[in-house]
Amino acid sequence: MEAQSQAAVDWWARPREGAQATSWITGYRQSLAARHRDVVVEAVGTLGARSVLEVGCHCGPNLIRLAQADPALSCLGLDVNAGAVAAGTAWLADLGVSDRVRLQVGAFPAATAAMEGQCADVVLSVYALAYLSDADLDAALYEVGRLARRGVVLAEPMADAQTPVGAMHTLQGYTEWRHDYDARIPWIGTLRDMTIRSMPIAPPVDRLNAVRVYARA
């Protein structure tokens, strides 16, 4: 993994303690009803999924929303931060969805290398691939496609005429990236047979301006 991508992994993985840990988790819990999560739920619903794998799930707000919207859905989330996973696991139990939603610690894509192909109907990423540099993106997209049986849902900062491809620097000590997924995906072997549908997030939420649904033809 390129140094810029690894820096983002390291930042997200580091332990948070005391008030910082509490406020970090509280912020995610309070965002459960955020507008972009409505679009994610709708997007996953268009694919008729019975199972979802989310990469970069943090404490699980997207998966909780999905499980609440569809009682037949089973979900697995991966995240590099052990504290977020532990807090999310407790949250799932409090909400009564821990029988259908499970979180585990792991860095994508290394954490999924041993998983069987097409192990989930839908693979979901919400502002997770934005932490991968351009050089690391193709390998991650290949793995996303390998794991997805029906399709892929990406809620990421999307490049367009007004917001070009490239690095978006933050003040956190790592780099965020805006990628042109539509241009890359037709060249990725595990994804090239997929149709593309765009669902706007208007106005954008924290640089998230659209959700892309990539469905197997």
Overview of the molecule:
By secondary structure, this protein is an alpha/beta fold. It has a single domain, classed as Rossmann fold (3-Layer(aba) Sandwich), CATH 3.40.50. Helix content is 35%, strand content 28%. The strands form two sheets. It has a seven-stranded mixed sheet. Strands 6-7 form a two-stranded antiparallel sheet. Helix 3 packs across helix 4. The longest helix has 14 residues.
Outline:
The chain has helices at residues 3-13, 18-30, 35-45, 61-69, 82-95, 134-147, 181-184; strands spanning 51-55, 74-79, 101-105, 120-126, 148-156, 166-169, 175-178, 194-205, 208-216.
Summarize the helices and strands and which ones pair or pack:
Blueprint: H1 3-13, H2 18-30, H3 35-45, E1 51-55, H4 61-69, E2 74-79, H5 82-95, E3 101-105, E4 120-126, H6 134-147, E5 148-156, E6 166-169, E7 175-178, H7 181-184, E8 194-205, E9 208-216
Parallel strand pairs: 1-2, 1-4, 2-3, 4-5
Antiparallel strand pairs: 5-9, 6-7, 8-9
Helix pairs in contact: 3-4
DSSP E strands, number: 9
Structural class: alpha/beta
- Helix fraction bin: 25-40%
Stretches where pLDDT is under 50 for at least 5 consecutive residues are none
Give the topology string: H per helix, E per strand: HHHEHEHEEHEEEHEE
Beta-strand level of the residues, as a percent range?
25-35%
- How far from one another are the termini? 31 Å
Keywords:
217 residues; alpha/beta; Rossmann fold; two-stranded antiparallel ribbon; 35% helix
